[in-house]
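Write out this protein's structure.
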Amino acid sequence: MAGLNPTDFYDIQSLLSDEERMVAETVARFVDEQALPIIPQAFDEHRFPKELVPELASLGLLGCTLQGYDCAGINNVCYGLICQELERGDSGLRSFVSVQSSLVMWAIYTYGSEEQKQRWLPAMAKGEAIGCFGLTEAHGGSDPGAMHTHAAKQGSDWLINGSKMWITNGSIADVAIVWARADDGIRGFLVEKGASGFETRNIERKFSLRASVTSELYFDNVRVPKENLLPGAEGLKAPLSCLTQARYGITWGAIGAAIACFREVLEFSKTRMIFGRPIADTQTVQRRLADMVRGITAAQLLSLQLGRLKDQGRMHPSQVSLAKWNNVRMAIEVARDARDLLGAGGISTEYCAIRHMLNLESVITYEGTETVHELVIGREITGANAF
């Protein structure tokens, strides 16, 4: 029998359609040839490689699951594989696509008017416009229902006051989807760049997601015309449904980060000599490598089945919580162990493990901490809300 592929131990490739395999291979080439040569330096320089956006768009990766509006209209398993390959490059790259596609474009597609869709979706699919998603606030974190940002009706327009924190793409966005508390509940608004009273500030001194733009958003009597209200978005359920879309992609993305760390340390272990033999020949290292394969394989099967359920319209948010919790925890443990096996060199960005390890500290926190996802599953299986 031929040897097994260490990063596809259960032959996931055989469970994919021709289109799914083609999409994964295309994005993998893009990551290898265009992203990886510049990502480590971008991380070091605390810079988002915006020069990659046109190619992301030309490959049809932005809003790729949406139908029409110049979007690719591919299935959710394809989107998951895209996220896996992009995060194999860097979490910041996957985060950009995730926010643009799953949070902003999906929100406009699902809750926007036809005029809003026609104005923004084709431009976003082409990479000509960038969006951000303003939900999180400094004091709220895991409790978005506690938001203070407020929207008040003034004639036919709205006035927004408040602030948002930890917003990916914030300062480079042409439009922000902003969630605010109105008299009739939580509502969503399209706040355009340059609006009077709207200000963004980049969050500096990050040691995670350094190849990504993270911003604060400030609103001081920002006037929003009625045409920029998302008509279908009423209540907290709307922004939470957007997060479910993004979390799905994260479950795949984390696998990519783990695969990158595993491949690197596997090759290193075959050439790193200690006490007269490669460390790959030792029981301790083989056990640790085997544990990485166990985690990666289980995560692949979880996300693939999750994607099939999503494509069938049967995916439940609690199932997304289980996969996000499991897969990101797996990835961060693989990254940390790979960093350790690399020895002193593992703390240098000449290797990818430390970069992925630091990035995953954010991924394990944003869009639902582990505790939040544990309690989501606990509520599902017991029927009792412990939040």
